[in-house]
Each structure stands twice: as structure tokens, then as C-alpha cells.
Amino acid sequence: MLLCPGRSIFIPTVIHWLRNSTYPWTIPEDKFSDVLADISRAVYSNPGNFQYDDGLNLAYHIVSQRVHEWRGHFGSTAISILMTFFSSTNEFKTKEARKAYAKYQLKDSRFVYEDPDNEDSPGAFLSEFILRVFTVQLNATQGHQIIDSLHWELPTYSTALALTTTAAEHALILACNNLIVEDNLDQGKHKFMLMLNHATNKMTNTGTAFSSANWETDTIAYMQQIEELPFNRLKEIIQRSQRYMKHSPHKGLDELEDDDGSQNFVGYYMRACLPASNH
Fold first, then answer.
1. Is residue 3 part of a domain?
2. What is the rounded distance in angstroms from the CA atom of residue 30 to the CA atom of residue 19?
3. For the chain, N or C: smaller number of CB within 10 Å?
4. What is the pTM of this model?
């Protein structure tokens, strides 16, 4: 059984299941096969054939590729938001200023909080940066189907929110080390500078990629923190992220618009949290 062409409800339902799973990067093959069969049974009234076969099962491979792309969208969206913020703000026209800003945001994980200087109510996971990146999840699950056997728990969105947070941190670390450059072949896009891999003696971006090898441990650590959030905070994150969702299926995941349709990537949080020397 192959997946139906076009934007079906199958892939959004898979991503919806992943949001609350315990598998941010690595999903056991047998577990994933069973979940895909359950979703296929609910969506198509047919369990299909999603048994992992060392990469030979086309249906399993297609879904796995879409999941890989979903993870990648978190990383690319975070970089797009950050670099657009830099390019639209006069204070950050130089690499030195961008590095200082990124370093400042990384200190004590300031980038996670809506108001990091408020000791009583800093607003964890409510920064505009986090909310904008989190729309990757909301956009990817539009049209999903609820399946009782897979969605019986209260939604914590721990996997999706942890990927959001690590993607934001990843973007800031790259900026802090001046490793993000404009892609001359794709206007408006960015790429990583290549670094020397001492093991192979070749230039590569393997060490700077948003990947399981580099970020799985950090993602799991964020998941543990997120699972302790009160349910009302999760509802607030989702509700406040919705205003940044794309309005058209033809827009890319990194084209996040405000309610008035303007591409205003520079929000209150990112302006308010500048280092004191930049005010």
C-alpha cells in the first residue's frame, strides 16, 4: 500500500502522534511500524504494510522521510527567524553585534523566557522566538485525525516543544560562532559554514547540523523539563503560537506572518531582550 498523493490526513496524523511521543529523534522500527499500521487502519480502513525491511519497504521509507523533513523544519525555521531579525534590526548589521546578542540570549537560556528578568514569572517557553518556531508543529498537523488508541493521554507536546527549543538554541549557537552565511544560490536562505572534520580531513557541516547525533541528548533533557509544565502553560503556548501560523498552504514553513499579513519577524520579546549596551 502506498500513501495517497497530495496533502492527505495521514502524515499530519503521524506528526500529531509524534508531538506527544518519547521519540524526538530515534523511533524504534517495530514501534513505528505498529503506529503507522494503526493510523492507516483508522484513516484508510486498511492497516497497509509498514513493516520495517531494512529500507526496502517504500511506504515505511516515505513516511520516515517526511518525519525527517519535519524535524529539519524546526532547525531551518529557527535560523530563518533569527537571521531575518538580525537583517531587519540596525543594531545587528555586523557579525560582532550578532555574536554578542546570541551569546547574551544563550546565557541562562534567556531565549526560552518571555521575560527572563522577572524572577516571579519569567514565562518559560513563551518567548516570541520559541512561539514562532513552534508553529512548525501546528502547521504540520493541520488536518490530522484524532485516533483514540494513540491519543488517549493529555497532550504535553513535549517532543515538539523540545525540538523547538533545541532548534532555537542551535540557531543561536551558530550565530554566536559566526557559522551562518547567506546562500548565494537561494536568495533569502542561509547555510552553515563548512568546518574541518579532523577524522576525515574534509570540510563538512556534520558537526554543526541540527541532527540526532548533535542534539538528541539536549532534546531529551528539554523534554524532561517540559513534561513538568502545568497543562495551562501548554494551552497558552499553543494559543499564543497560533497567531504566527501561516495562512496559506503555499507558503513555506519559514514564512511566518502576523495577523495583518505582514512579515514582521521582530517582536516585542526579541527587541526587549537586547543586551543593555544595545538599548
1. no
2. 19
3. C
4. 0.83
